[in-house]
């Protein structure tokens, strides 16, 4: 079997898909994207395709090595995301070639279902209480929330209290038997993060995510030690080498993104590295259906998996939904906030190719919002 063609599709709301074709008619799908830089990743995918055209798609690890390291310069979001999407597509082909889901190739299932959380949003505690209640009624046992918008670098008591009030409102709706995770999104300054961790401790969040921006790795250890709340991060780390200092700093939950961190091949290794440090895997996935499918394949085969992010029905998927691009969206239907084991070959989904081609003709130009402080200086989103 040889790879004959690699195509990319820029699909709303903000994703990029790739399709790898072989001379035996088997197809693999991947989702190589960095949100807001889809066009840059697209260019990288087509550059890397030179490695793949004419090659055996089943030599996944060799292709991963060459694509990741063969350009001499390596790492970073654009390259690692391009490799990630192509790696997903190669695993999809490998599963289809053998007639099994990818997790069977990764050692077989280690669990019967995958627990997922739902996002809740809102500025006012009342709104968050209602949204949390709605997710409880939908069957979810965990939710995640941002808890703060733009914050002053040294927040006053009113700003700090507002964050605590929002998390408290969610906790109230959830009760002690469900979980709330809080994403600081790298938008909370180091001094604010330290204070908030102490203030949030009585509400027992499942974890606090990205307490600081990823380049502030030197501060992570002191944030781990600031409270007993488990610290999560990793959506902006792209390899096991990037993750090592986070693990050494005592991060409890590793959150690589299947579409950013070198795909299924590398996320498996990041999970194994996390296991050495007693940390758990919670794949980041506010992305599309292929990325979620790849996440699930890893989740079902990974012993130290914790919980899965997903963005079905989320507010920013404006115009197009994750389920729109699938022939049978039932593979992502939740029962009690859980996803069942996909049994289809490869990634376990059937992409609606006509829909994808049509969506690519519209394309998108999604960008991260730019936030500013009242004095017009840049603020982290
Ligand atoms: Mg996050």
UniProtKB/TrEMBL annotation:
Which GO molecular function entries does the Swiss-Prot or TrEMBL record give?
galactonate dehydratase activity; metal ion binding
Question: Which of UniProt's keywords are assigned here?
Answer: Lyase, Magnesium, Metal-binding
- Please report the stretch or stretches of sequence annotated as the Mandelate racemase/muconate lactonizing enzyme C-terminal domain: 125-230
What is the superkingdom listed in this entry's lineage? Answer: Bacteria
Gene3D superfamilies (alphabetical): Enolase-like C-terminal domain, Enolase-like, N-terminal domain
GO annotation, biological process: amino acid catabolic process; D-galactonate catabolic process
List, alphabetically, the SUPFAM superfamilies matched.
Enolase C-terminal domain-like (SSF51604), Enolase N-terminal domain-like (SSF54826)
Q: Which PANTHER family match?
A: D-GALACTONATE DEHYDRATASE, D-GALACTONATE DEHYDRATASE-RELATED
Identification of the protein by name: Galactonate dehydratase
Report the gene name.
dgoA
């Amino acid at each position: 079997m040889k790879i004959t063609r690699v195509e990319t599709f820029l699909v709303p709301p903000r994703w990029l898909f790739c399709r790898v074709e072989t001379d035996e008619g088997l197809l693999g799908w991947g989702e190589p994207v960095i949100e807001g830089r889809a066009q840059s990743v697209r260019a990288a995918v087509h550059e890397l395709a030179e490695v793949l055209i004419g090659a055996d798609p089943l030599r996944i690890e060799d292709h991963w090595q060459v694509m990741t390291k063969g350009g001499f310069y390596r790492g970073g979001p654009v390259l690692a995301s391009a490799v990630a999407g192509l790696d997903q597509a190669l695993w999809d082909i490998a599963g289809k070639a053998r007639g099994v889901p990818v997790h069977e190739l990764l050692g077989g299932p280690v669990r019967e279902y995958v627990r997922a959380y739902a996002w809740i949003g809102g500025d006012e505690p009342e709104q968050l209480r209602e949204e949390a209640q709605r997710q409880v009624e939908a069957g979810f046992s965990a939710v995640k929330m941002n808890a703060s918008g733009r914050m002053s670098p040294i927040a006053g008591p009113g700003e700090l209290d507002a964050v605590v009030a929002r998390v408290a409102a969610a906790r109230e709706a959830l009760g002690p038997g469900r979980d709330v995770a809080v994403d600081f999104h790298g938008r909370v300054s180091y001094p604010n993060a330290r204070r908030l961790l102490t203030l949030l401790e009585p509400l027992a969040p499942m974890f606090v995510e990205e307490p600081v921006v990823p380049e502030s790795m030197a501060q992570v250890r002191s944030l781990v030690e600031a409270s007993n709340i488990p610290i999560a991060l990793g959506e902006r780390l792209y390899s096991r080498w990037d993750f090592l200092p986070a693990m050494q700093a005592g991060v409890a939950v590793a959150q690589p993104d299947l579409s950013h961190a070198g795909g299924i091949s590398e996320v498996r290794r990041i999970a194994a590295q996390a296991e050495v440090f007693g940390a758990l895997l919670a794949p980041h996935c506010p992305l599309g259906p292929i990325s979620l499918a790849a996440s699930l394949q890893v989740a079902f085969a990974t012993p130290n998996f914790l919980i899965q992010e997903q963005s079905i029905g989320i507010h920013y998927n404006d115009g197009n939904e994750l389920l729109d691009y699938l022939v049978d969206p039932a593979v992502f239907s939740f029962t009690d906030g859980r996803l069942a084991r996909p049994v289809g070959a490869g990634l376990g989904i059937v992409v609606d190719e006509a829909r994808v081609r049509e969506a690519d003709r519209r394309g998108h130009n999604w960008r991260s919002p730019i936030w500013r402080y009242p004095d017009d200086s840049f603020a982290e989103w």
